[in-house]
Amino acid sequence: GVCRHVANNKKSFPPGGSGAAQGRRAASAGELRGASARGGLAEGPGGGCRRPPGRCLRGSASRGPRRPWVYAYEDPAHPARLLGAFRGFYLDGLFTDIALQGASGVCLRCHRAVLAACSSYFKAMFTADMKEKAKSHIRLPELSHAVLEALVNYAYTSQIQITKRNVQSLLQAADLLQFASVKKACEQFLVRHLDTDNCIGMHAFAEYHNCSELEKEARRMLLWQFEDVWKQEEFLDIGKEKLAFILSRENLNVWKEEAAIEAVVKWVAHNVEERIEDIYELLSCIQIDLDNVYLRSALSLQKKCRLNDNKIRSLVYNALNPSPKGLSKRPTAAMYVIGGYYWHPLSEVHVWDPLTNTWVQGTDMPDHTRESYGVTNLGPDIYVTGGYRTESIEALDTVWIYNSERDEWTEGCPMLDARYYHCAVSLSGCIYALGGYRQGAPVGSCTYDKIQRYHSGSNEWSIVATSPHPGKQ
């Protein structure tokens, strides 16, 4: 039927095609070229006509001002590919325009643009009016080849290996050459490895290189674990000004002032001839009254004869005034009551002040709908570990930390396994979680035999031992 209909209507179409087609064929070549130049019809490859490519994207019936089509393309792999290309140029020695030479004398051929992009030091060197700007060879004799090469490799790869062996050298070099991100990474590494053995040296190191986070954490450890710190070997090399600063701090954490006196005696005895003159100034920082006349006469005698550690200790204790008014006003302890249960879980924090013999309330504990958790402290921080959810009797691995100095809570690193009814204790800067239950409700639950240890420096939990009697609570 369709074929018949077309055949019957042949007369509707003139021979050779439609009238419009004939008109197009009749158009001269010059007219077609003119139309093409005006942005109209263009001659196709087969002799026909087509619209310009740009116009195919716009509807012919659209009105108003025409806006060009824009495709904003971004290649997410381009930065890594570009960095990889520069890394290849560096390894192959292509397009390099500067050489860096460390203490070993070995030269590293680099690109100024890459160094300037990573280091404010090199950016200033290559852009400001410095004599090195026009040089093609820069000597850095204070840097070892290994450290310099590590920083250059970081510039081309964004990766660097930080270890206990190289961290201080890397931080010093990053501070000198102003590789800010590398310096920050080294600082965070040192913070994670702070302990009572090295916090004195780390505090001095942080002050010298302006590492604010490391300085803050080292000072905090110095003050809050002073009774452990002064027994370390590096305490003997601390400067008088630093020791006086520590002893005079209101938040110095010592159980009794005698511990601070012992620290001063040990420090003076290490180098009597040079330090005996400083003993009165240091003892006065402890805020204990001294018999000035007796002490001065004893110190005058000290200049004439060498005294051993025991004699110096006797000298100091005989000079103390036992009057209670001379005791330091610093509180040496406080008692904290965290949470609890009274018909429902409690969130309150109550603090007993020994100076006023009164109770004050701290910031409420978050996420308090839990029971049977462990509580212990590291310095000013009180750790609430584990427990089980009151509503669902679900064992928890979460850790909340209350900072008694700032009266605020933060969430800590979760334990490796959930547990409750366990014992949490602190020892030598670490927290240990022992025993407890780990499944279901307290009745009928299985006991847990893995002993976990939390290291505040690395902010990590680890399994350190297995309880020999896991069934006993």
TrEMBL record:
Gene3D superfamilies: 1.25.40.420, Kelch-type beta propeller, Potassium Channel Kv1.1, Chain A. Residues 21-30, 50-59 have a biased composition (Low complexity). This is Kelch like family member 23. It comes from the Eukaryota. PANTHER family: KELCH PROTEIN, KELCH-LIKE PROTEIN 23. Keywords: Kelch repeat, Repeat. Residues 96-164 form the BTB domain. Coiled coil: none annotated. InterPro entries: BACK, BTB/POZ_dom, Kelch-typ_b-propeller, Kelch_1, KLHL23_BACK, SKP1/BTB/POZ_sf. Residues 1-64 are annotated as: Disordered.
